Automatic annotation (TrEMBL):
<feature type="transmembrane region" description="Helical">
    <location>
        <begin position="36"/>
        <end position="55"/>
    </location>
</feature>
<feature type="transmembrane region" description="Helical">
    <location>
        <begin position="200"/>
        <end position="218"/>
    </location>
</feature>
<feature type="transmembrane region" description="Helical">
    <location>
        <begin position="124"/>
        <end position="147"/>
    </location>
</feature>
<dbReference type="InterPro" id="IPR000425">
    <property type="entry name" value="MIP"/>
</dbReference>
<keyword id="KW-1133">Transmembrane helix</keyword>
<keyword id="KW-1003">Cell membrane</keyword>
<dbReference type="GO" id="GO:0005886">
    <property type="term" value="C:plasma membrane"/>
</dbReference>
<dbReference type="InterPro" id="IPR023271">
    <property type="entry name" value="Aquaporin-like"/>
</dbReference>
<feature type="transmembrane region" description="Helical">
    <location>
        <begin position="159"/>
        <end position="180"/>
    </location>
</feature>
<keyword id="KW-0813">Transport</keyword>
<keyword id="KW-0472">Membrane</keyword>
<dbReference type="Pfam" id="PF00230">
    <property type="entry name" value="MIP"/>
</dbReference>
<feature type="transmembrane region" description="Helical">
    <location>
        <begin position="76"/>
        <end position="98"/>
    </location>
</feature>
<protein>
    <submittedName>
        <fullName>Aquaporin Z 2</fullName>
    </submittedName>
</protein>
<dbReference type="InterPro" id="IPR034294">
    <property type="entry name" value="Aquaporin_transptr"/>
</dbReference>
<comment type="similarity">
    <text>Belongs to the MIP/aquaporin (TC 1.A.8) family.</text>
</comment>
<dbReference type="InterPro" id="IPR022357">
    <property type="entry name" value="MIP_CS"/>
</dbReference>
Length: 227
């Protein structure tokens, strides 16, 4: 298993189980259950593939690592290609599974896609959606960079990062469905229709800006532990 295969499988798992929880079991487990599905999927893959690729499974995280000086641009590009491919494959599999239910339609039930505005979740506006995704991704990246930095307890990194993702979902599902991950947004949107595709830009731009800002902050030494 090389790094790109690991990133493909990790992102596939996150999207299948996270979005799958929303689409297949959302009525039974509610927002809390969906939040934990995303976080637990990340925790599992962190310990499953973390030693192979670092378990970014998120283009914003890979670019945040570049901004922090922990990864080259070239390697980040190969990660991002694998991550997006994994998310698209997972969304396709989820659609096949969900379509096995007689009354399921993408139009009526969705595919766990992100969004904002009229007809989506609590109908928050675009500015609220952008601010949430920007700030949440920034804080998520701070947790990731801090938990994986020298001196941090390495055995607990996956747990800390996964629980941070749970907390982000608990707050943000009603706002945007929570992306903080462009690949997670791209996969379902490609099958969910033009409205979801038309809003994708926000779930690409805001997470990348948030993660890059956290990376720059760490690279500056402002959040580096004193020796």
């Amino acid at each position: 298993m090389n790094k790109q295969i690991a990133e493909f499988l990790g992102t596939f798992t996150l999207v299948l189980f996270g979005c799958g929880a929303a689409v297949i079991a959302g009525d039974d487990i509610g927002l809390t259950g969906i939040s934990f599905a995303f976080g637990l999927a990340l925790i599992g893959m962190a310990y499953g593939i973390g030693s192979v690729s670092g378990c970014h499974i998120n283009p914003a995280v890979s670019l945040g690592m570049v901004a922090a000086g922990r990864m080259s641009v070239g390697e980040a590009i190969t990660y991002i290609v694998a991550q997006v491919a994994g998310a698209v494959a997972a969304a396709a599999v989820l659609l096949m599974i969900a379509s096995g239910k007689a009354d399921y339609t993408v139009a009526a039930n969705g595919l766990g896609q992100n969004g904002w505005g009229a007809g989506y979740q609590a109908e928050y506006g675009m500015m609220a959606a952008f601010v949430f995704e920007l700030v949440a991704t920034f804080l998520f990246m701070v947790v990731i960079l801090g938990a994986t930095s020298a001196g941090a307890p390495a055995q607990l990194a996956g747990l800390a990062i996964g629980l941070a993702l749970v907390a982000i979902h608990l707050v943000g599902i009603k706002v945007t469905g929570v992306s903080v991950n462009p690949a997670r947004s791209i996969g379902p949107a490609l099958f969910a229709g033009s409205a979801a595709v038309g809003q994708l830009w926000l779930f690409i731009v805001a997470p990348i800006l948030g993660a890059a800002a956290a990376g720059v902050l760490f690279r500056s030494g402002m959040l580096t532990a004193p020796e």
